[in-house]
User: Fold this.
Amino acid sequence: MRAAVISDVHANLVALEAVLAAIDAASVDELWCLGDTVGYGPRPNECCELVRARATTCLCGNHDLAVRGTIDLAEFSGDAGVAARWSRGVLADDALAWLCSLAPAGEAHGVALFHGSARDPVWEYVLSDEAAIATLVLTEEPLVLVGHSHVALEVALRRSTLEGGLAPAGTELELGEARWLLNPGSVGQPRDGDPRAAFLLLDLDAQTARFERVDYDVEQTQAQMREAELPESLVVRLSAGQ
Ligand code: ZN
Assistant:
């Protein structure tokens, strides 16, 4: 069973299309999405439509919950709030209905899935050893996947030792013999210094994982954002991947 894992698309349709083309070329059996399909970016409806059509399992994230009205927009500060409010204003009824059907935690083929973490599936960023251990303690599955931080990450727990860290493009892992916590990184707004769109390839039979990055036309997404009058700080960060 081969699966591709995406997360944090954030309404960046150009990046999503580039990632889906790369995933098609990798011929996987399933596509899993760890949430935040909308928020920040300029094409929420098109991204909901594509992810809905393609993903066999999909979670919701904090931005999805804000845009669908489950979380008060007051929870979002500054430009994130501006973008969430804009997204809510343009969201089509069928995209809204689909977002309302999603949960922030799930499971697929014995793999635990969370948008944030096991401790707090909506809000917690797993970016420290303490947070990674907390999620591994609260779960039993050998493999746990999280999104939300927009940072590609690989952490292994062997007996009581935690190892790992950032997972740059091309990182390959032999799973098994340890418990793993992986974050595929973000499709639509990477924050680990690599502006290319991120995704993860899993082979559950061979017990391997590979972190992938694909180039996309960042300037096209930036032009769409400026046309929608989304905050300039959200536009420029895409160039740097920060
Ligand atoms: Zn996100």
